[in-house]
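Re: weekly structure request thread

Next one in the queue (128 aa):
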Amino acid sequence: MEKTDTVVHGPGLMGGISGLAKNLFGLIVSRVELAALELSEVRNHAIELLAIFAGAVLAVWFALAYGTATIVALAWDAMGWKILLVLFLVFLAITAALVMKGMAMLKQGKLAFPETMNELRNDRDALL
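Done, posted below.
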């Protein structure tokens, strides 16, 4: 029997490319899972923002209705127009408050994907 020397080589180019592809695929899958998790949170914030927007729209319609009623009531000689003006200002203030609340939500980034974006930045920095 002859003794043969076998030299163990590394995985080679194809093995390295295959390993890189597997790792890249795993990275993409984990980022998609993270995005899906954050998407459910963003969905809840989007629903809340939609409810605030609907309230703001309703308040604007009331402000317009009472504003119009105020213009009509101003033609009257009685003091009834003052209450309509007060209601107009109240609904206008409600509208302003709801719009500011919605803008604050957007500025806080509640509709963003902070963890996903952070992980993607880390991946980019690691690869570069």
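The CA atoms of residues 104 and 110 lie 9 Å apart. The longest helix spans residues 12-74.
Next request, please.
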